[in-house]
Design brief:
The protein is of the alpha/beta class. The protein is 48% helix and 13% strand. The mean pLDDT is 96.
Length: 354
């Protein structure tokens, strides 16, 4: 196992240590915009076939790094592996995204929810982490991740994606005790899951609160943030004498950046609606910031991409503590050459800020 990273810029930026440039990776960097990914997915037979086979998961995790000089790899998996391991029966229907055969719709199913046995039910994920870490051979750090308890419960109650989150919100307002029960179990599951990824070799972890932004101010502070905080508090902070930083990303959460920065995380991920300079003024001394280019910028010309990169870098300003990223996952319709232009622009244009 590697102990000396050849490129630790990403980890240093998360810990707000000096770097010579701004590191970057892209959410969903291993994905459908890459022809080689589509090829591997065809071999795997399905998206879940890809996730549940450590060989395939390793292959697709490494694909973007073979193409672009990115500063981190992220485990190829899905946030819904946890509810799947809880017995809700995850499946993907073509063109419709993830669905659950047995969503949480009544008190008895909610009360029956159990924390999964990570070693048994999610072994394929930890095996993939170990395999990817070995394959990376110290080139760049590996990020592990999980969905947040609130985001997982959205899928578990809705039975899939949703336009308005009416089912989960109705449960939350009508039966707050039952909602808190789902969140309690999910929180324990996520702590175990992320710590298992760290034990298996993840060098940083990220919590995706993808749907936290759909909540009201009061609901976010009752049903989402406290559970994310408990996860951050329960994480392994150091392994083999090396710090394991954590990132919390709430899509649509820019308005609550002060609260998020106070939960003890190392870094806060931002979507593109929040100006990174304003975010830094509010929380700069507490946390690093990750983000936050609109992924649709990558549909524009390489020159336009450069202009947008410069805007974000100059808004953040001088010094470390910034990991460049998109404000959400890269679109499947992105031209890989434009992703390459982004990586090049960030690496070149950021040097003058360090």
């Amino acid at each position: 196992m590697d102990f000396k990273l050849k490129n630790d810029t990403f980890l240093r930026a998360l810990l707000r240590q000096p770097t010579t440039y701004t590191p970057l990776w892209m959410m969903r960097q291993a994905g459908r915009y890459l022809p080689e990914y589509r090829e591997t997915r065809k071999q795997a037979g399905s998206f879940l076939g890809l996730c549940k086979n450590p060989d395939y998961a390793t292959e697709v995790t490494l694909q973007p790094l073979e193409r672009f000089p990115l500063d981190a790899a992220i485990l190829f998996s899905d946030i819904l592996t946890v509810p799947d391991a809880m017995g809700l029966g995850l499946y993907f229907s073509d063109g419709e995204g993830p669905k659950f055969e047995r969503p949480l719709r009544d008190e008895s199913s909610i009360k029956a929810l159990r924390v999964p046995d990570i070693d048994k039910d999610l072994r394929y994920v930890t095996d993939a982490v170990t395999q990817i870490r070995k394959a990376l051979d110290g080139s760049v750090p590996l990020i592990g991740f999980s969905g947040s308890p609130f985001t997982l419960s959205c899928y578990m109650v809705e039975g899939g994606g949703s336009e308005d989150y009416a089912k989960v919100k109705t449960l939350m307002y009508n039966e707050p005790k039952l909602m808190h029960h789902i969140l309690e179990i999910s929180t324990q599951a996520v702590i175990n899951y992320l710590n298992a990824q760290i034990e298996a070799g993840a060098q940083a972890v990220m919590i995706f609160d993808s749907w936290g932004g759909v909540l009201s101010h009061a609901a976010f502070h009752e049903f989402s943030l406290p559970y994310t905080q408990r996860i951050v508090e329960g994480l392994i902070k150091e392994k083999d004498g090396v710090k394991i930083p954590n990132i919390v990303f709430t899509k649509g959460g820019g308005i609550w950046i002060d609260s998020i920065a106070n939960i003890g995380c190392d870094a806060v991920g931002l979507d593109w609606t929040m100006d990174i300079g304003i975010a830094r003024q509010k929380v700069g001394h507490k946390v690093a910031l990750q983000g936050n280019m609109d992924p649709v910028v990558l549909f524009a010309s390489p020159n336009a991409i450069e202009v947008e990169v410069e805007k974000i870098l100059s808004s953040y300003g001088f010094g470390s503590g910034h990991v460049f990223n998109l404000g959400h996952g890269i679109s499947q319709h992105t031209n890989p050459d434009h992703a390459a232009a982004l990586v090049k622009a960030v690496h070149e244009l950021s040097k003058k800020y360090h």
